[in-house]
């Protein structure tokens, strides 16, 4: 059994495994090297040899407990034939959303279009570096994908004014997204993913009254689907105001918390295993401060099943030596 499963399934509290969101990426010089030669990010994600190599890069350096496959939540709109591009220093830009076209895509067409992602998962999960470690597959939550598909770029602080205007479009797109997310989950699991994480990066943008329709219900459907395949599911509803209510309704196997969550309060509020929390900016300070802040989480969760992680992705300006220090510190705790 891998160490993430020990925490999630057996509810072990004697140790905390560690992996880091965005662990394969821009803070690693060996990633930047590959990236320089591959200006098209989507094509890089669809290069099974390179995406396997990138996924394994952080595991070669650090004693992490899981690999998260090098891909992106926006591979799903790409698979649905909406244009997705990544502009330097800006982020993703999506093309026009054509409901007719999207509604006609078949399961086979979708799976074929992003098949290299699944082949990479298979390669990673079979690699000897993954012995006793988890292979994490992931999806963007329906809400976060809807945001990108309609907004066509990161919303920064708020949604465009007429985001919900076309109710028909919104509900149709949600149905299509849910269908293809299930296919994407199944394909990842069939190829060796043994944990699924659902990223809802824009959950914090919604008002309380809209959470049921756009976050709770669609996410619950997917959580139940992952559970039906006997694989544990981690939810990260970033900056949602009420994590307790989210857990009560959606019932993920693990809840991943952002860095604004008070760890003591969440420990009081919920019973399920917890992941994450540390502010990634702490990795930009010094070892003493890093040790102090990371110990805070380890101490608070010492009698609770806890997977060490950050409260959001590791920042590109992070010194890999700080990551090394963090991983060793968590392991020696
Ligand atoms: O965690 C990992 O190491 C696995 C790979 C992974 C990437 N994106 C690679 C990536 C994962 C799990 C994601 C998830 C993702 N992608 C999310 C959810 C998590 C979060 O950050 O909130 C979101 C919202 C996206 C969409 C996305 N992809 C944005 C907004 C951007 C640009 C800004 C940024 O953070 O870099 C990306 C690009 C992206 N995805 C990069 C990587 C390594 C950088 C690409 C580059 O080299 O320019």
Notes on the structure:
- The chain is an alpha/beta fold and 333 residues long.
- The chain contains 15 helices and nine strands.
- The strands form two sheets. A seven-stranded parallel sheet has the order 1-4-5-6-7-8-9. A two-stranded antiparallel sheet has the order 2-3.
- Helix 4 packs parallel to helix 8, helix 9 (142-151) crosses helix 10 and helix 14 runs parallel beside helix 15.
- It is globular and about 55 Å long.
- The mean pLDDT is 96.
- It binds coproporphyrinogen III.
- Residues 21-26, 35, 41, 68, 70-74, 86, 91-92, 138, 154, 199, 201, 313 line the site of coproporphyrinogen III (CP3).
Number of helices: 15
Range of helix content:
40-55%
Average predicted local confidence, pLDDT? 96
Rg, nearest Å: 19 Å
Span from first to last CA? 21 Å
Attached small molecules: coproporphyrinogen III
Set out the fold topology.
Elements: H1 3-8, H2 29-37, H3 41-45, H4 48-61, E1 66-68, H5 75-79, E2 84-87, E3 91-94, H6 99-104, H7 107-113, H8 115-126, E4 134-140, H9 142-151, H10 167-190, E5 195-199, H11 208-228, E6 233-236, H12 243-250, E7 254-257, H13 263-269, E8 274-276, H14 287-300, E9 306-307, H15 320-332
Parallel strand pairs: 1-4, 4-5, 5-6, 6-7, 7-8, 8-9
Antiparallel strand pairs: 2-3
The structure holds coproporphyrinogen III.
Coproporphyrinogen III binds next to strand 3.
